[in-house]
TrEMBL record:
It comes from Acrasis kona. Belongs to the small GTPase superfamily. Rho family. Its main location: membrane. This is Rac-like GTP-binding protein. InterPro entries: P-loop_NTPase, Small_GTP-bd, Small_GTPase, Small_GTPase_Rho. One of its GO terms (biological process) is small GTPase-mediated signal transduction. One of its GO terms (molecular function) is GTP binding. It is a lipid-anchor. Keywords: Cell membrane, GTP-binding, Lipoprotein, Membrane, Methylation, Nucleotide-binding, Prenylation. Pfam families: Ras. The keyword Lipoprotein applies.
Amino acid sequence: MARIENVKLMTVGDGAVGKTSLLMSFAMDKFPEEYEPTVFDNYTCTMVYSKAINVQLGLWDTAGQDDYEQMRPLAYPGTHVFLICFSLVSRNSFENISSHWIKEVRTFSKDVPVVICGTKMDMVEDSQEKIGREEGESLAKSLGAHAYVECSGKTQKHMTEVFRQCCEAGLIFQNIIKNNGASTPATPAESKDSEGCCLIC
């Protein structure tokens, strides 16, 4: 019988990049059509990581707006992995990862692993401002991220891979599993939904 391990996942990134939509789509299979700034919210779901481990995944959502800059770090203690999100169709949100978000995360949680996630994959084809995969992978490597992934909360494309990488990073951080060199960015082939990784409703 699989044992249950706990992972606290903290989601950060600019406002309106799709953090809340991604979490809601994953945890509740529901995609919000209208944007409403988040203050704080959290969800819990159980994810099958392997035959031996089920992960009780605590999904913490934060507001990216400057108004909440003093409040966000209050939720950081006990975090096992940060999911730093940017929009694949917003270069400003991408550049803010290195200029702001990684600095904030490292100030309050020096050693906690990060996963970099490009959201709104479904909008890339129609955008003049799209961020290429090579750019995202290069940024993730320069920041020492556990992985780089791209997804769409709306279509759920590659969504499972995002949270599989987060579970893996959180388990490694807690020394529950060993790091077998999985800290490189996920390739497009690896980014498809894994058969062995799913939610338990």
